[in-house]
Amino acid sequence: MGDIINSDGRKIPEHVAIILDGNGRWAKKRFLPRNAGHVQGAANIEKVCTIARDMGIKYVTVYAFSTENWKRPSAEVEAIMKLLRQYLKDCRKKCKKNNMKVRVIGDISVLDEDFQNTIKDLVDYSKEHTGLNFTVALNYGSRDEIRRAFKEIMKEHDEGKISLDDIDEKLISDHLDTRELPDPDLVIRTSGEQRMSNYMMWQIAYSEFYFTDTLWPDFSKKDLEAAVDFYNKVDRRFGGIKS
Ligand code: FPP
Questions:
Q1: Does some domain include residue 31?
Q2: Which of 26, 32, 38 is the pocket-test mutation for ligand 1 (most atoms within 8 Å of CB)?
């Protein structure tokens, strides 16, 4: 929506949402345990955020752990959670250095208190930062997000704070975890899979989708540029006609 035109005339999407896929396959190809792929994938997030920021992208949102990912073997779930916890702890220094603002979407109430506090402290610490808006989707699922929003809206209705006629698209958007974010302009999914896996289903109504065979740990500047080049070729009409 809020595209920026950079110095070489390229249209830069304001918000890029990424489905990080292929960590396991990246590890398998190298005869490494799956967790090595997640470690490499986590390290690549920082690199890609820096490249995105330098390109002029304002918001990057990554799908780190879905409400469905709990179905994975418990050792893998534990390893990803450990990695996420450490990553978000270390993120404070990176935030300071880069003036980055961090948000977390998803239901974090299921995490242990210490982990929840790490997240809340980080979000609070970076809330006035004006650099890249980096959002991590953690225990996130679009259907669950909408379910939680429904409950909140019903509660406000029952308490007499809103009437039925107040329920419009904006009110619904304002009750989602993404209420502070613009809708994604571009969604990237790596590793050759072409589905949305319960990722921001309300918010991506008019997003463009870019799929690449590159596995997430290998996703590089070249891949991000290819995604932005693809975005430049599409004609976004948001349901209207070309003027
Ligand atoms: C997808 O690859 C990856 C995940 C579901 C987990 C992503 C988690 C991280 C990169 C760890 C930390 C995240 C942050 C934000 C620090 P896959 O395991 O589905 O790969 P496969 O399809 O090749 O098996």
A1: yes
A2: 38
